[in-house]
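thread from #wetlab-drylab

HS: before we spend reagent money on co-crystallization trials with cytidine-5'-triphosphate, can we at least see a predicted complex? here's what I'd submit
DV: go for it
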Amino acid sequence: MRFLVTAGPTREPIDPVRYISNRSSGKMGYAIAEAALEAGHDVVLISGLVNLQPLRGAKLVSVSTSDEMFNAVHQHAGGCDVCVLCAAVADYKPATLSPLKIKKRDEEFSLELIPTRDILASLGGWRDRRFLLVGFAAETHDLQENAVKKLRAKNCDIMVANDARVGMESDENELLVLFRGGEIKKIPRAPKKILARELIKIFSKFDTKMFDKKNVTISERN
Ligand code: CTP
């Protein structure tokens, strides 16, 4: 199968020396890409800037901003069977990019932010989508409830939910895997590499031929 995996944070520039970003390490996305390669799949890894070793065998597309990630995902998704959007995409970006360094002044300063495009939701809205669409939900509260809302709002097939306070920057995580059909699977706390192998087993069970059938209910095949 052909996998597309996004990983890491995006950077939204403010001026030539500053940007808005987040604490995502990219470890979960890289672990998923690595587990997919280990299982014999082809992988396109679309990665924000991270401090991780490049993965041998994956086609790496390096991006920085949410717009660059949006374009790269849209360029490659059509050729894939499974798209796993694990990246921590910034929700907002500065309304304008200052070409010159913004100088310090002695008064309050506010920055106008505008929403970025939601990459996962944009794929969920594709007509005649022929790939399994997997999102990741990072939450600090009401994990299951918020993740179910995101699964529905972004029209994905699987939402993998985690507590951002456990997983962020860490080598370990615990996951709740929510399926479009309503099933829920808990994967207890483990190193991200082990979790990634479990996820690849789950994703590989889906037969993308199911997209040929109309009104298909996405659930796990046993
Ligand atoms: N996502 C995306 N594009 C964005 C924001 C998020 O593709 N502009 C994707 C992420 O890659 C992830 C999923 O949406 O697969 C959920 O991201 P998350 O940060 O948990 O949620 P948000 O939709 O950003 O909502 P909130 O920040 O309010 O929790």
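DV: The mean pLDDT is 93.
HS: ok that's useful, forwarding to the group
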